[in-house]
């Protein structure tokens, strides 16, 4: 496949090592990368520097990093064809982040909704790193001169900011140095919601384990969780418009759609006039098959530390080579001493 990859396109994406990966992480991000790797050059990062912006993610960062790496590979990301590496290993990320922060007006950062959500009421106590998080994300993408970034709905604003920063830098130095990265919209269930509340995102920090399907859940647990997943007292919908007012049903149909590659319209046509039991049974089988394959593969990988470490080392070397080359060029453009 290598020769069919278009060298002008470079995909970059990343997942934070926060522990307890779930169906939302898989369907919202990793699963969509599987197809991209067939035709595009891809870099998949484990963004540990981003994870440390939230205090609860600073524990077990090494273990969680290995877990995400294992999840990437177990989900079918080929480590020979793609670069899989850990963000903190490549120092260019922090270096570029500083440089870009000097080209980012504070007003742009003040508009970021994720910061507002995460900082909550007590903004004065929020760490600077949480505030400048989107600049680090721009650095991740631009460090490799990436052209395309698969992101879910919740990261679109950050990607938009990365584009603005790239343009600001290019304009300031009157160069075409950074490509302006485009979003890649893939997959159906880019936003997987809680099984208990269709308006809340599926999250590892939800106190109810029933609200999510973990990549490590055993088949019986998965079955119970889907059986109990909230729907409503109405029969299966018979037109797509009905889903707007039925967020829990929409979520289950979206998950079904992402796993089966069938459009929601087709699913509605297949199951309308039935109750939810046949639909839920089929959904359970699909989730179970997918998750159990990934979780058993993850277990194997996590038991072979030497192999996993060697992949991350190789990934680091390949990423670092690009990073060093680009940082060198950048320093020349800026006109630093010694560059
Ligand atoms: N902020 C992203 C998230 O939480 C993770 C991320 C960091 C990322 N750097 C990135 C995603 C660069 C895409 C490209 O989902």
Indicate the CATH architecture of the largest domain.
3-Layer(aba) Sandwich
The third-level CATH topology of the largest domain is Rossmann fold
Helix content: 40-55%
User: How many H/I helical runs?
Assistant: 13
Small ligands present: tryptophan
Shape: globular
Structural class: mainly alpha
Assign the CATH superfamily of the largest domain: HUPs
CATH class value of the largest domain: Alpha Beta
Poorly predicted runs of 5 or more residues: none
Rg, Å, rounded: 21 Å
Strand order of the largest sheet: 1-2-3
Fraction of residues in β-strands: 5-15%
Domain module count:
2
Mean pLDDT: 93
Number of strands: 5
Q: Let me know the largest β-sheet.
A: 3 strands, parallel
The first-to-last residue Cα distance is 38 Å
Order of helices and strands: EHEHHEHHHHEHEHHHHH
Question: How would you characterize this protein structure?
Answer:
By secondary structure, this protein is mainly alpha-helical. It folds into 2 domains: 2-188 and 305-334, Rossmann fold, CATH 3.40.50; 209-299, Tyrosyl-Transfer RNA Synthetase, CATH 1.10.240.10. It has 13 helices and 5 strands. The strands form 2 sheets. Strands 1-2-3 form a 3-stranded parallel sheet. Strands 4-5 form a two-stranded parallel ribbon. α4 (92-101) packs parallel to α13 and α7 packs across α8. The longest helix is centred in the last third of the chain and has 30 residues, at 305-334. The protein is globular and about 70 Å long. The model has no long low-confidence stretch (mean pLDDT 93). The structure holds tryptophan (TRP). Residues 12-14, 16, 47, 50, 137, 140-141, 149, 151, 155, 158 line the site of tryptophan.
């Amino acid at each position: 496949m290598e020769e069919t990859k278009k060298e002008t396109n470079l995909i970059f994406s990343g997942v934070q090592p926060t522990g307890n990966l779930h169906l939302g992480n898989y369907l919202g991000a990793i699963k969509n990368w599987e197809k991209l790797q067939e035709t595009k050059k891809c870099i998949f990062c484990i963004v540990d520097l981003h994870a440390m912006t939230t205090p609860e993610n600073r524990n077990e960062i090494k273990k969680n990093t290995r877990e995400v790496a294992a999840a990437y590979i177990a989900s079918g990301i080929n480590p020979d064809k793609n670069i899989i590496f850990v963000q903190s290993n490549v120092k260019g990320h922090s270096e570029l982040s500083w440089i870009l922060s000097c080209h980012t007006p504070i007003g742009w950062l003040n508009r970021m909704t994720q910061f507002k959500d995460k900082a909550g009421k007590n903004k004065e106590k929020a760490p600077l790193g949480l505030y400048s998080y989107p600049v680090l994300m721009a650095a991740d993408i631009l460090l490799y001169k990436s052209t395309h970034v698969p992101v879910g709905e919740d990261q679109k604003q950050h990607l938009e900011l990365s584009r603005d920063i790239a343009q600001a830098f290019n304009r300031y130095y009157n160069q075409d140095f950074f490509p302006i990265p485009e979003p890649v919209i893939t997959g159906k269930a880019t936003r997987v919601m809680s099984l208990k509340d269709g308006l809340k995102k599926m999250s590892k920090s939800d106190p109810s384990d029933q609200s999510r399907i973990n990549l490590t859940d055993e088949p019986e647990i998965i079955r119970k969780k889907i059986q109990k997943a909230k729907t409503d007292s109405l029969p299966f919908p018979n037109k797509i418009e009905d889903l707007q007012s039925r967020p829990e049903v929409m979520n289950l149909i979206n998950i079904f759609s992402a796993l089966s590659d069938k459009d929601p319209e087709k699913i509605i046509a297949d199951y309308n006039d039935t109750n939810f039991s046949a639909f839920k049974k089929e959904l359970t089988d699909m989730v179970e098959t997918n998750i159990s394959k990934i979780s058993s593969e993850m277990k194997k990988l996590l038991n072979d530390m030497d192999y996993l470490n060697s992949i991350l080392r190789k990934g680091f070397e390949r990423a670092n080579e690009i990073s060093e080359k680009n940082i060198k060029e950048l320093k020349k453009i800026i006109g630093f001493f010694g560059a």
